[in-house]
């Protein structure tokens, strides 16, 4: 006979599994948030990414341009934050992106076994989760760091290409930060000009915002929930990538990205919804990517596709994660193709990797679900 303690410990997991098949879960996957969407910020992200690809193409440094574009994705983070708060957080994100490229590049240049690559990038994902959690950074999340590291591991072959990739990513982060802060920087210039002209200047609400420094936030011991989330991400990334390798998939770290993206949800029910939405989005996006990769777009055609998909993804981020994933998938594959080269057949690999990663991510979330996470309970699902 099972003890009451044993029954109590397994109850959250049983409820979590029940949540997988609940109507509210799948309704949430396809539900659209009809609130007004912002356009200016997504356009700034797209322009920052496009500018890096443009410069890379004109300078005949296309591989470096793709890493600069990855760095420019810094502009996709911290969009809800007041500008004075955003500065430090964007700086931390930029450093994390450059470090991710460096870690992936070292793995690629050293030509290490795939097992070492999996361990290195999985640990990187966990470290990124600690930083993002400690700073309460909003945006695409840790999956961008994994993507950057994976791209570098696939295309960097020696010390020279490593240095070029890291330098390009650093330049891209600066451009991305500038793009994110553009309205505030423009306003600051205007206010400065008014002061020099002796004209009255209204007080700025941004200057009055109270905020904690990045160093203070990072120096504090991570909250238990953040540490547990980071540990889950490390385990999920490692298991999913290892499983993908075992079954013969060519891009095992894509499975890790699927698991990491699913586990970025704050609670179990968000993990399930994000996982399902990412899977549906990747399926649709992979079909689009396969068609695009089969068309001889050339470099400049690919740049246009990447920028358009990036703007769509950023615009839809608050509307539907499934639609966002649909746009992100061809964008990511086209961006990877610029530096590593891909064929249309890679779309199938992308779907299989994502499916495997989502399954692992949701399974680990269910196995480690907290008893206090009541969002997955049947009675809660009935009310949602």
Structural commentary:
This protein is mainly alpha-helical and 384 residues long. It has one domain. It is built from 17 helices and no strands. Helix 4 runs antiparallel to helix 15 and helix 7 (143-155) runs antiparallel to helix 12 (252-263). The model is unreliable at 4-9 and 374-384 (pLDDT under 50).
How would you sum up this structure in a few lines?
The protein is mostly helical and 384 residues long.
List keywords for this structure.
single chain, 384 residues, mainly alpha, 17 helices, 75% helix
Shape: globular
Low-confidence runs of at least 5 consecutive residues: 4-9, 374-384
**β-strand amount:** under 5%
Overall SS class: mainly alpha
* Biggest sheet layout: none
How far apart the termini lie comes to: 35 Å
Assembly type = single chain
What would you report as the Rg, rounded to the nearest angstrom? 21 Å
Number of helices: 17
Taken in chain order, the helices and strands follow as: HHHHHHHHHHHHHHHHH
Number of domains: 1
Mean pLDDT: 83
Number of strands: 0
Instruction: Bin the helical content.
Output: over 70%
